[in-house]
Amino acid sequence: MKLQEKQTIHGFAVDRSRYVPELHSQAYELHHIQSGARLLYIQNDDDNKVFSISFRTTPSDSTGVPHICEHSTLCGSRKFPLKEPFVELVKGSLNTFLNAMTFPDKTMYPVASRNAADFKNLMDVYLDAVFFPNMIKDKQVLMQEGWHYHLDSADSELTYRGVVYNEMKGVFSSPDSQMERHVMDALFPDTTYGVESGGNPDDIPNLTQESFAAFHAKYYHPSNSYLFLYGDMDIDQTLAFIDGEYLSQFHVQSVDSAIGRQTCPGSQVKTYPYGIATGEKTDHKTLHSLTYVIDDALDPTVAMAFKVLTYVLLQSPAAPLKKALVDAGLGKDISGDFQDGILQPLWGISVNGSDPDKQAQILPLVRKVLSDMVRSGLDKTLLTGALNRTEFALREADFVGRPKGLIYGIRCMDTWLYDMDPLAALSYEGALETLRRGIDNGYFEGLIQKYILDNPYYALVSLVPEPGLTERHDKALADKLAAYKASLSKEEIDAIVADSQALQKRQATPDSPEALETIPTLTRDDLEKKVDSIAMEQQTMDGVTVCYVPDETNGITYVNAYFDLHGLTREEISYVYLLSDLIGDMDTTDHTYGDIASLIDLYTGGIDYSVSAFSNRTDNKDYMPVFRFKAKGLTQNLDKLVDLLKEISLHTVFTNKDRLAELVEETKAGWDMDAFRRGHTIVMHRVLSYVSPVEAFCDAGELSYYQFITDIAGRIRSDADEIGAKLSAVMKKIFTRSALTLEVTASQEDWKTAKVVVPAWIQALPQGEKPQGLCDFGLSRKNEGIMTSGTVQYVAKGGNFRSHGYDYDGSLMVLDTILQYGYLWTKIRVQGGAYGAFTRFYDNGDMVFCSYRDPNLRSSVEAYDALADYLESFDVSDREMTKYVIGTLSRIDVPLTPSLRGAKAMSRYFTGTTEAIAQQRRDQLLATTAADIRALAPRIRAVMEDDNVCVMGSEAKIREAKDLFANLVSLPD
Hints:
Layout: E1 8-9, E2 12-20, E3 25-32, E4 38-43, E5 49-56, H1 65-73, H2 85-92, E6 95-98, E7 101-102, E8 106-113, H3 116-131, H4 139-145, E9 148-150, E10 159-161, H5 163-171, H6 175-187, H7 209-219, E11 225-230, H8 235-245, E12 268-276, E13 286-293, H9 300-315, H10 320-327, E14 333-339, E15 346-354, H11 359-376, H12 380-396, H13 404-416, H14 429-441, H15 443-453, E16 458-467, H16 469-486, H17 490-508, H18 513-517, E17 537-541, E18 544-550, E19 556-564, H19 570-582, H20 593-603, E20 606-616, E21 619-634, H21 638-651, H22 657-674, H23 679-689, H24 693-699, H25 703-734, E22 740-746, H26 748-757, H27 759-764, E23 784-788, E24 794-800, H28 811-831, E25 836-841, E26 846-852, H29 858-865, H30 867-872, H31 878-892, H32 898-911, H33 915-926, H34 930-934, H35 937-946, E27 948-954, H36 955-960, E28 967-970
Parallel strand pairs: 4-11, 12-16, 18-22, 23-27, 23-28
Antiparallel strand pairs: 1-2, 2-3, 3-4, 5-8, 5-11, 6-8, 7-8, 9-10, 13-15, 13-16, 14-15, 17-18, 19-21, 19-22, 20-21, 24-26, 24-27, 25-26
Organism: Megasphaera elsdenii DSM 20460
GO biological process, one term: protein processing
GO molecular function: metal ion binding; metalloendopeptidase activity
């Protein structure tokens, strides 16, 4: 159905109709006459339909009220009176995306599905949630999702609990999150951007039920809403539903959600402390951030230009401003960022791995380097390459499995929220043309002069490490709560105990069958029975197996090379992981690293390097470790892409000792900043590395790698020749023809070109010997408590069920859903206050449970240990079991882009998962009953009784539970 301008349909007036060639879509802007709601509909033939409703939310304090509202609206509503309809949707929907997101000035509720009935159900639950939530009157919602005083008994310690409270404690455990907050405080003292929309843990307990409900009443009205629809749908029925069920119940009202434009408060230079562990070294752990407000960057052309400039100046391996800062010794890890999606966008430089005395040198150096560039002109080759990268990404539109409409819906808010054209952010051809001309006419130099050199609106903020600061803060908080408790009467204390117990009772009480019946769901008959078939042809080129995956790729050819890593020693494996961080950023015999970077940008869509392992389906001791080149480019440039792959793999040299040292030190500084944030990944691999050779190999790229890179960084300036020689040796050992398997994803026509061009790389590789043997990691149960200055934990427990005689079964995929959105959701998140929990069950028998941003430690381990008892008595209705099956399918049936299709084909290839085996797993999944889940209890019990535990988190919490651990260790220093 086509809509016409000036048409009125189901209460909506069609204000504008426009074709958007970049999206191959017809776009319609509408408004709902009675309620004032705005609506944008992007019509095309994409069956992955997207709906979102967003609100402009502009908090005036850092209590986190927008974030807590986002969580809480999904905790029951008028039509769906459950405790958490969101969870029931996750269980029983074929959604391809289902979440909600809080930004500094907006809150978004997007959903997506390829099934029309499911899509309508998702819209219904979300619209009812945002307009008619139970949170307005039910104080227990704020207590659970936001914060509350908690007392188990009158004589126990008074604490704060709440999901968002603990989530934000985890966020603020990362120095870069603290830096972002300080920068925004400095730049926007008078507007909503100067407060923390996610919530500062110190401020969250100031949020009252009254102000919580008032915030919803003010901002969650259709007149302050932005509805977005995308894809192939019956728009007549969709608009009729939105109008009839929801918008027709409201009338236009004035909503003051204006953000307010900050006038320049003057240039700011500030220094703040951040906490590190007691006894931890402070050298080279200072962070600096120089951030400019780019007031005109709501113009999509200016925004795109700054993204190009950021890459050219600070992100490319050849980035001159980054090089100048490193050469001056101001920091080890330099990065840049352009942040749009706010009214006054930001351009910033981050200098990590630094010291406090470097602060004064940063601004003068940046100004000198940029002034020289403006005067002499930016490198046109770098600009052209960066613009090519940008254009390639826009045209490819590969969002790694996420629906295109989701990304477009978020992107259009970059202008729509500020009362500008929502399509401006989606239409890029004009901007590309302007920037192409701008390479030669001084456009980019003009931007630097105007927005950086002549701009007084900036903040230079430094974060200096202070040992013990976190512990002192935690003690001050404990003292404050103790003093508050001491001031309470017996009646007041009893009331807190009663409220705590009432909340725990609510959390532990299942929803009634009647309430569960209100959530619409599909049936098993609605589910796709057949496993996703991926065509793959195998042939041999010069002795190398080449796998071809046919797909329509818009003129792009994807080339993935997998080099077998059998036959390596333990030390060589560490150097292979290091090689993956360095290769492509070092000189070759023919080009400097800067030239290589420029050629990659000019002629490809990117080349990435990684190390991974594919486990044998039935044996974690047998696995395929690989070094992977992941490359893509327009087929017309495939010969240049292959030339680059050949040069990088065969002719990279490590003789530039300064460059080698810079990259090693940058890698180490990056780990220092990111280690705690990736704590769940670290502990999940680590705990399995006690029992699983394949996971020991993976851990060699996680915590073990952090330990390795710390050692290497400490001696790189003196031992560069030795380290470079080892990198060269391992590179020559692994990049051989006998170790190679190639995969190409392309159209049939482009495959013809690939068959002619790709052999040039194969033929250039030395033959080598077929790698044999796997490294012996000497497995043992370490049970480590990894102590940090963080204020939350990542708690992991796992092992291998095949070692106890149990096989893998497709019902384990359903158990994954049951645990993540049932048992562990209740125990770890709802009752424990953690942000969430993960589970993993692998074909090879490895399994692990892990909590995320968890205020607890021992109680989470106890929840894992009690799981088998829960499973032994597991019993739900057929309808609820069907929901778990549907929710499982929605997680595994991800729509495949060409690059994802190729990756999935190779995963099946290396693991020996034939289509027949995949179909058997799917059949088992689809047929799973409650009895099948009960039958899994013995294998879970057996693994939990192996007692393999690994935790990363607060030093105090870990020492308090030291009996759980055989080893207490600190992060590398």
